[in-house]
Design goal:
Strand order of the largest sheet: 1-4
Number of domains: 2
Shape: globular
Order of helices and strands: HHHEEEHEHH
Number of helices: 6
Largest sheet: 2 strands, parallel
Structural class: alpha+beta
Strand content: 5-15%
Length: 113
């Protein structure tokens, strides 16, 4: 929390942080356009939290996974719901994140041997 406060308290920090959200409408347009013309071909691991207080608490399914699946080819998308986490998975569940990344890279290395 101190890290976030420090950055948001710096000159221009709030503006920089809020620009991320202001870009959402353009990001959505860009994603729709790209989804119609090109698909991601590499394997993808999509991690989603299961707790979103701003949306009413626990949300069944994965909005993130559903969005990414529309941008990718076939079945190369693996979705994992991160228990006891919201949108800040690296900060909230670093243990789970590292475990998932280790499994992903270990499996990819085994496939290429």
């Amino acid at each position: 929390m101190e890290e976030f406060v420090g950055h948001y308290s710096a000159a221009g920090g709030m503006q920089a942080g809020l620009e991320y959200y202001r870009a959402f409408p353009q990001d959505a347009k860009d994603n729709i356009e790209l989804a119609a013309t090109a698909k991601l071909t590499m394997p993808l691991l999509v991690l989603s939290g299961d707790i979103y207080p701003a949306l009413g608490g626990d949300i069944p399914g994965s909005m993130t996974l559903n969005s990414i699946q529309s941008l990718a080819l076939g079945t190369n998308v693996q979705g994992v719901i991160v228990p006891y986490s919201g949108q800040r998975i690296p900060e909230e569940r670093p243990d789970f994140l590292l475990d998932q990344l280790s499994k992903l890279f270990r499996n990819k290395n085994n496939e290429s041997e």
